[in-house]
Amino acid sequence: MKKSFDELTSSEKAAVLKRRKMFVTFAKVYPPALLISMLLTVFTIYMTGDFALSFSPHHAAATSGLFATNAVLFGIMFFGIYNYEEAGKFAGRHYLLSVVTLTITYIVSLATTRFLNVYALPLSLCALVLVELSNRRTSMITTLVAACMLIFAYGYGEQFIDVRITGLLISVVCNFVAAIAINSLVNKHLTRLQFIIGALMAALASVPLVIVCTLATGEVGIDLLFNPLWSYGSSAAAVFVFTPLVAIFEGIFNIADDFRLNELTNLNQPLLKRLASEAPGTFNHSLVVGNLAEACANAIGENPNLARAAAYYHDIGKLKSPVYFSENQSTYNPHDELIPEVSVSVITSHTVFGEILAKQYRLPPEIVAVCKEHHGTSPVGYFYRKALNLTEEGDLSVRNFTYPGPKPQSKISAIIMIADTVEAAMRAYTPESKEEYEARVKSLIDEKLKLGQFDECPVTMKDLAVIRSTIIETLPRVQHGRVSYDKKRL
Ligand SMILES: [Fe+2]
Ligand SMILES: [Fe+2]
Predict the structure, then answer these.
(1) Same domain, 378 and 297
(2) Rounded distance from Cα 7 to ligand 2 centre (Å)
């Protein structure tokens, strides 16, 4: 008998929720993809067919088949991309980016192979843009779908124009090899120049293959020179089109690639300048958290640039009322005039206001998530204890003294939570010995673990151990000028 949702175990519930989330995302992003696949079908007919003939009874089935194939391939592409994104969190955005990149690659490829040379097929464009703005797997899946769609397009066009499908098949295979080489050899952490040189070198992979295939098909003479030139030239052209395209897509899809993250960590960014002048204590704290988070991300194989950028912005919500946070106070403490319940609502609202501000400034969703998740549902211990002391019953629910959450949903959020907690606690603490210092860091992380703050993110116990040892090693190097313990700290 089928169990109701409440009867399922927690792992079964998580699987059901994941499936539901996947279909909700699919329902949101597939309709625009379907519309694009229809437009691509119309474009294909325009390029390879004849409109009147295409919809005649004789060809209608092939035309519908072309549309259905494109629609199905776009659907398969969604599930391929979704399954490889971290908890499918940002898969919708990356899917739409892939659909748009594929569309541009498809249109250009159809035009170049039709009017220039069958080997002029810039599949590398897809691989390049998506390696930089998304990840290797998304790039590979999308390039593969683009290759399949081109084969079907020319298979369809064979009925109308004099096209050699064998030649195109060989070209797709050869240029796909160049795209795989680019996909494997370049990565998003290279500088722009290294990226371009790496891509130009990797694109050479198709040249020997094109020569062998040209010889095998019996084409000799000038084709032996021109076919590899067209193939390599189309990949090289893709490398030069890639830079402006990446800049445009970064803005449209609000992607946190390394170029954007480097811009965001420039201290002249408006939000960081505001933080430095209006909340200098928070600004300095964020810089130290940035150093810790970057080292931790490197140690567990996460994106160090994203970790640093997220750390710089994690406390921007404090800009609403900086003086209510101890790192920005000198002598005056406004909490002395407030009851603990009010103090707590001011303190905890910085995650909510941070999310609003981050969205206003159009920060990437990965950073918005950190602004909202970095305290999870942790209690604000100092004000809870203060309220306990003031209440006559001596009994008070801790729930009214906790952050609204959600708990960290990604490894980066978990890293920021730990780095933030450790930095704030250790800044106001002078340990007696190395052992005491290490034990304190361990107890701070264990406390978050006990509170279940890492229950909703994929961070493992092994990751936590690596994060702990990285922080123990890095913190003394990046945190100077310890201050004496201030009991007013939150
Ligand atoms: Fe915070
Ligand atoms: Fe913080």
Answers:
(1) yes
(2) 39
The alpha carbon of 411 and the centre of ligand 2 are apart by a number of angstroms equal to 17
Centre of ligand 1 from the C-alpha of residue 201, in Å: 45
**pLDDT value, residue 167:** 77
Both 69 and 107 in one domain: the answer is yes
| pLDDT value for 487 | 40
Q: What is the pTM of this model?
A: 0.81
Ligand 2 center–CA 296 separation, angstroms: 16
pLDDT in tens, 45-92: 888 877 777 777 777 888 888 899 999 999 999 988 887 765 556 678
Looking at residue 391, which CATH number applies to its domain? Answer: 1.10.3210
- Counting as low any pLDDT under 50, the low residues of the chain are 481-490
Look at residue 480 in the predicted model and tell me its pLDDT: 58
Residues 106 and 52 in one domain: yes
Residue 484: its pLDDT value, please?
A: 36
Quick one: 249 and 263 in the same domain? no
- 240 and 319 within one domain: no
**Nearest bound ligand to the CA of residue 421:** 2
**Helix axis angle, 57-84 relative to 10-48, nearest 10°?**
140
Q: Are residues 349 and 289 in the same domain?
A: yes
- Considering the domain boundaries, does residue 149 fall inside one? yes
Annotate 261-319 with DSSP letters as a single string: HHHHTSTTSHHHHHHHHH-HHHHHHHHHHHHHHHHHHHHHTS-HHHHHHHHHHTTGGGG
Residue 102, domain extent: 5-255
In a domain, 84, yes or no: yes
Q: How far is the CA of 171 from the centre of ligand 1 (A)?
A: 54
Q: Which of 306, 252, 314 is nearest to 287 (CA)?
A: 314
pLDDT at 443 (0 to 100): 94
Distance 286 CA to ligand 2 centre (A): 6
Find the 406 Cα to ligand 1 centroid distance in Å.
13
8 A C-beta contact, residue 236 and residue 203: yes
388 alpha carbon to ligand 2 midpoint, in Å?
25
Is the Cα torsion angle 438, 376, 322, 319 positive or negative in sign?
positive
Indicate if 116 and 234 belong to the same structural domain: yes
pLDDT of residue 87: 52
Q: For residue 483, what pLDDT is reported?
A: 34
